[in-house]
Amino acid sequence: MATAKEARAWARSTLRGIGNSLYTPFCGDDGDDIDWDAYRTLVRYCVRELRHPMLWCTSGIAEFWSLTLEERKRLLEVAIEEARAANPDVVVQACTAATAAKDSVELTQHAQQAGADIVYIQTPMMEAHGGEGVLKFFQYIADRTDIALGMFNSPSSGYVLTPAESARIYEEIPAVCATKEGAFRPASSRMLHELAPDLTIWECDTTVYRAGWLRAGIVGPAQLGTAGYLYETPQQPILSEYWDLIWNDKLIEAMDYAEKSGLDQFGVDMRSWFTCYPGRSDYFTHWGGAFKYAASLLGLPIGDYPHSRPPQAELPDEGRAQIRTAYQRFGLIAQ
After folding, report:
1. I want to staple 129 with a disulfide (CB 3.0 to 4.6 A). Which of 28, 133, 169, 247 is the partner?
2. Are 18 and 54 in contact (CB under 8 A)?
3. Which pLDDT value is given to residue 1?
4. Are strands 26-27 and 33-34 parallel, antiparallel or unpaired?
5. In what order do the strands lie in the sheet with 91-95?
6. What is the pTM of this model?
7. Beta carbons within 8 Å of 95's beta carbon, 6+ residues apart
8. Annotated domain spans of the chain
9. What would the pLDDT profile of 14-58 be if each residue is shown by its tens digit?
10. Which contiguous run of DSSP H or E holds residue 95?
């Protein structure tokens, strides 16, 4: 675990590789329970079988807004237990976002005590008074904890920080060392780098990596939170091989590999089911049911309640068909 004082040097030397954002497998009536065996299997699969070096726990794909505080704590504890048994050096990242600052403090203190390496706080989803309000939220948490902090700037919050607002948070709170820029606005990430050059940035618009932004030091060598386990298998480590080329500055080879392996086409074929609900097409979401359906196609356990908890909807047959076809064309499952 990195303390607040150590956070920035630690982030620059340690945050690298694929970081898997874990889904929550539900079971029981209306998904009111969690299938802990399925969750343990998922953690072991990511760390031991795929050999990915980082985990991203209790965040958007995990549907944190539908989990109780106790469920979120236990999910993190189980992830740490299973992951460190498989790889003692795995980096465990925890999302401790909550609508109440006191709840976020409670989760952050728990993550610190449980052995997480860093926590990320998504821009508050309710009543955020701009960058000033987000800064006060972060400061409240930083004053009560001693662990590395990261920003998670996602449009699913309903408010996206400007580069100047993020840079101010970084400037005023020494524990803040990294950010997941999830708004798909590369120009803003570049501006943020200019304002805070030592901040470790993960830009979710991954085309910037092909443009040499890693070489230029604008972004870091890590996928801070993604569903990498849905893009490869131990027998076909397509995503890992692609990112190894990127991280070794073999950009032309990486682009050729992405085309020939079908990785680029897979992104097209998947459509937007992971991040867009058709009934609210202007809103960015983390559709838990879509992620879990994709996982089930690869043989990963998702619990006997395959849907998301409210307020998310069930994945329609159209989405399931398109996702299945994408995986068949990609060659990760049989026709």
Report:
1. 133
2. yes
3. 79
4. antiparallel
5. 200-203, 176-181, 148-153, 118-122, 91-95, 54-57, 17-21, 222-226
6. 0.96
7. 56, 57, 58, 59, 60, 62, 64, 119, 120, 121, 122, 152, 225
8. 6-234
9. 999 999 999 999 999 999 999 999 999 999 999 999 999 999 999
10. strand 91-95
